[in-house]
Amino acid sequence: MASSAAGCVVIVGSGVIGRSWAMLFAGGGFQVKLYDIEQQQIRNALESIRKEMKLLEQAGALKGSLSAEEQLCLISGCPNIQEAVEGAMHIQECVPEDLELKKKIFAQLDSIVDDRVILSSSTSCLMPSKLFAGLVHVKQCIVAHPVNPPYYIPLVELVPHPETAPTTVDRTHALMKKIGQCPMRVQKEVAGFVLNRLQYAIISEAWRLVEEGIVSPSDLDLVMSEGLGMRYAFIGPLETMHLNAEGMLSYCDRYSEGMKHVLKTFGPIPEFSRATAEKVNQEPAPPRGPAPATPAEQRDSMNTTRGPELEPGLS
Ligand SMILES: NC(=O)c1ccc[n+]([C@@H]2O[C@H](COP(=O)([O-])OP(=O)(O)OC[C@H]3O[C@@H](n4cnc5c(N)ncnc54)[C@H](O)[C@@H]3O)[C@@H](O)[C@H]2O)c1
Questions:
Q1: From residue 52, how far is each of 18, 20, 123, 132, 164 by CA, in Å?
Q2: C-alpha separations of 78 from 9, 37, 197 in Å
Q3: 73 in helix, strand or coil?
Q4: Are strands 8-12 and 155-160 parallel, antiparallel or unpaired?
Q5: Looking at residue 287, what DSSP letter applies?
Q6: Is the peptide bond preceding residue 268 cis, with omega within 30 degrees of 0?
């Protein structure tokens, strides 16, 4: 295995997210050790990472300054967690979203790590205060929540336990930047962290508008893909407010009463009923990319329905 000047990172859990982290850390020049309770998962991960990196290299989309082969030399499987964590600077836990399972893993890590390594969880929604409760090394613990697919979406939410040391947050922030991700700090834990709170607010209102028959599912999606989403791909909602007037104070003077009037009409949390889910499933997806050239292509594109082909579990 090639030695790495950047340091050694351990990935615990070699599924979808563990593989992505492995590729990102190798791209940043880190030595990566992949651990999993299933040996076959480690083999599968190494194989799929090899294929993916070769394809990315061919497409000119491989991250970092090393070649695919050089990055692949940095990644190895390790069937023993104790051996894997020896000399590691950062451990990224990526096991399934199950509080008891993750607590068990962190308790095990807590008993074998030194006082320097960072213990980081990829959890999408478990609270750091629950995950890291009672650990001796709690100051070194943090949630680093990636967004799927992490290789293409750079944001990482950093969420500390109330006792996490500020240096742990700073070190994780610097590490994420070093591998080309875009870390942001959630200052206090909250259900859904920040990304999913924003996402769920949008989903909730989208669902309600469709359920109440105010807009069709495909037109609702167009509002985001051809409207709001175009802005939000470049600037956030607060910067949008600032630019919509002469600064934030002017925006609030002009629009806050109107916004409050509309916000008061928002209903309760939707039930996400099967009836509405089926209605959304039946709807043709909005057209994507260049308009179909022929009537046959047009028919084909309109035959696209939602549901089965949508990627599951984006978070
Ligand atoms: N998939 C997403 O969209 C997404 C996005 C952001 C964050 N996350 C979070 O990342 C974490 C991992 O999700 P995933 O989608 O990669 O899961 P996954 O099911 O693809 O992979 C989990 C891996 O953990 C392994 N594992 C199970 N028990 C283990 C143990 N005791 N020790 C070591 N390995 C063990 C499994 O064999 C499997 O390889 C979850 O907390 C999830 O919430 C997922």
A1: 14, 10, 24, 33, 35
A2: 12, 10, 36
A3: helix
A4: unpaired
A5: P
A6: no
Ligand 1 pocket, residue 15 CB under 6 Å: yes
CA–CA dist 79, 38 (Å, integer): 9
Assigned token pair, 244: 């919509």
pLDDT at residue 267, as a whole number: 86
Query: What domains are defined for the chain?
Result: 8-185 (3.40.50.720), 197-301 (1.10.1040.10)
pLDDT score, position 282: 87
CA of residue 250 to ligand 1 center, whole Å: 46
Q: Note the pLDDT tens digit of each residue in 96-127.
A: 999 999 999 999 999 999 999 999 999 999 99
CB of 16 closer than 6 angstroms to any ligand 1 atom: yes
Cα(301)–Cα(127) distance, integer angstroms:
42
Query: What is the pLDDT, as a whole number, of residue 129?
Result: 98
Amino acid at 88: A
Residues of the chain where predicted confidence (pLDDT) is lower than 70: 1-5, 286-315
Q: Find, among 37, 38, 11, 39, the residue nearest to 25 by Cα.
A: 11
Query: Do the strands 155-160 and 141-146 form a parallel or antiparallel pair, or are they unpaired?
Result: antiparallel
Q: Compute the distance between CA of residue 141 and CA of residue 102 in angstroms, rounded to an integer.
A: 13
Our mutation pick for probing the ligand 1 site, out of 78, 94, 104, 105, counting the most ligand atoms within 8 A of Cβ, is 94
State in Å: Cα 4 to ligand 1 middle. Answer: 26
- Ligand 1: distance of its center to the CA of 19 in Å? 10
3-state secondary structure of 210: helix
